[in-house]
Amino acid sequence: MSIWEYANPKKFITITTPLVPWILGLAIACLVVGLVWGFFLTPDDFRQGSTVKIIYLHVPAALMAINAWFMMLLASLIWLVRRHHVSALVARAAAPVGIVMTLITLITGAIWGQPMWGTWWAWDPRLTSFLILFLFYLGYIALWEAIEDPDTAADLTSVLCIVGSVFAVLSRYAVNFWNQGLHQGTSVPVVTGGRTISDVFFVPLVICMMGFGLLFFVLVLIRTQTEIRVRRMRAIQLRMRS
Amino acid sequence: MISLLRRDLTLALRAGGGFGLGLAFFLIVVILVPFGVGPEATVLSRIAPGILWVAALLAALLSLDRIFALDFEDGTLPLLATSPLPLEGVALIKGIAHWIITGLPLTLAAPALGFLLNLETSAYVWLLASLALGTPALSMIGTFGAALTVGLRRGGLLMSLLVLPLYVPTLIFGAEAVRRGALGLDATTPLLMLAGITLFSFALLPFAASSALRVNLR
After folding, report:
1. What are the chain B neighbours of A132 within 8 Å (beta carbons)?
2. Contact assignment for A171 to B168 by CB distance below 8 Å
3. Is A57 within a domain?
4. Nearest CA to CA, how far is A164 from chain B (Å)?
5. Is A186 inside a domain boundary?
């Protein structure tokens, strides 16, 4: 019994189908609890007023936008090494979710930045690197759409994902070098353990992060199942035609 | 490898298009900018480093789809793939040839266009140095992009979408080096980063490009 058995598309579908409603329910529960708690039951920040509450959408979306890319990188590597089709489809399924997360981050960031910094957009390192991440997602999705043969598409997008990851990290560093910005540093430094955000705001934020994570997970599951079924349909159609 | 390089250069020189086209495009973009932003010398000299770099980048982008497309169409590429020369070597040579055809003339022509944009006198050395160090990276990244999209019928537009985000670090460090040079600051850090990106591209991207080529030739 190894983890690779789940790479069988049939097994993947039979195992994940009953899981989907549960995870979806849990995600919605987390989001409702986190957002309601965050929006209505926390005090206003003494300097930022109520605008601070957009953090409950902004930070989790940003977290998932980056992690979605990492997940795609991992799935691409697994596809290149072990050639499990489900892996390639997971990478394909994650990209649109990731790009939406990136968009949410950019838009909520703009809405938050307008009252706080007095501007919708600034060429700040963090903002700029998210814009670049958005472009990377766009290129990745476009390449998937452009190639007809599914295996070729999976191979080429995997290579693009790996090279793109390296250049995305490089861009992050370059952009830092290019301009010092307005954006604050991280509020939840995982490495050092300390944090600059108080408990009142932190607990609902963590719940929201969990909610976004679960939401991402379940969306990718559903989309992967759809992709598998689309591929099956195509195979059946091809067989019927011949 | 040398003969392949010589073949590519001869083709580019004699078949026309490749050599002069990028250069002409570079010239036209640089000439168009003053029409867009107005002829004031102070404004132009401030934006000159960025304009020159962006124009060079676009000019390099313009000729990328020629790297593999012609060889793919007439069947040379499968022959190259089955030749004793490893495909990684082919990709490397293609990148170098592209640089000699576009990057090198761009680098040499850039100072002349710097005059048009009223570039600070202290920046010329840095402009030459940064373009000489940075354009090879542009060519190599572009070779990777061309390898990815070689099998597609309308790959040109898609390739620019794929390649331009990859150009971001090179552009930032390149333009930053010139800008610092223009202000009389020390520009060695961005230049070193630029050289790092170029070396890194030449070391690793031929492998990525050749694996993409293998997939496309399958």
Report:
1. 165, 168
2. yes
3. yes
4. 7
5. no
Q: Does B75 touch chain A (CB under 8 A)?
A: no
The tokens of A205 are what? 């934020």
Q: Please check whether residue A125 lies inside any domain of the structure.
A: yes
φ, ψ of residue A35 in degrees (nearest 5) = -70, -45
β-strand partners of A45: A49
By Cβ distance, the residue of A135, A159, A178 closest to B211 is A159
Interface pTM (ipTM) of the complex?
Answer: 0.83
Using a CB-CB cut-off of 8 Å, the residues of chain B touching A139 are: 161-162, 165
Q: Do B151 and A147 touch (CB under 8 A)?
A: yes
- Chain A positions touching B211 (Cβ under 8 A) are 155, 159
pTM of the entire predicted model: 0.85
Domain count, chain B: 1
Q: What is the mean pLDDT of residues A122-147?
A: 86
Q: How many angstroms separate the first and last alpha carbons of chain A?
A: 38
CA distance to partner chain B, nearest, from residue A188 (Å): 28
Token pair 């599914």: residue: A150
In sequence order, which residues have a C-beta less than 8 Å from that of residue A51 and are 6 or more positions away? A112, A115, A116
Q: Domain range for residue A225?
A: 17-43+52-180+201-241
B151–A contact, CB cutoff 8 A = yes
Cα–Cα distance between A118 and A122 in angstroms, integer? 10
State the pLDDT confidence band at B19, using cuts at 50, 70 and 90. low
**How far apart, in whole angstroms, are the C-alpha atoms of residue B9 and residue B13?**
6
* Phi and psi angles of residue A208, each rounded to the nearest 5 degrees, phi first: -65, -40
Cross-strand partners of A49: A45
- Residue A188: inside a domain, yes or no? no
Where in the sequence is the domain holding B51, given as residue range(s)? 2-217
